[in-house]
Amino acid sequence: MLYRKTPKNGDELSILGFGCMRLASKEDGSIDEERATRQVRYAIDQGVNYIDTAWPYHMGASEPFLGRALADGYREKVKLATKLPSWLIEKREDMDKFLNAQLEKLNTDHIDYYLIHALAGDLWDNIEKLGVADFLDKAKADGCIINAGFSFHGASEDFNRIVDAYDWDFCQIQYNILDEKNQAGKKGLEYAASKGLGVVIMEPLRGGNLTKNVPQAVKDIWDESPRKRSPAEWALRWVWNHPEVTVILSGMNEETHIGENLRIASEAYPNSLTEAELQLIKKVEQKYRELMKVGCTGCQYCMPCPGGVNIPLCFETYNHLYMSGNADEAKFLYTARLGGILGGEPGFASRCVQCGKCLEKCPQRLEIPTILESVAEELEGSDLEERVAVAKQLFKRT
Question: Quick one: which of 155, 166, 300, 314 is 20 to 30 A from 388 by CA?
Answer without folding.
Answer: 300
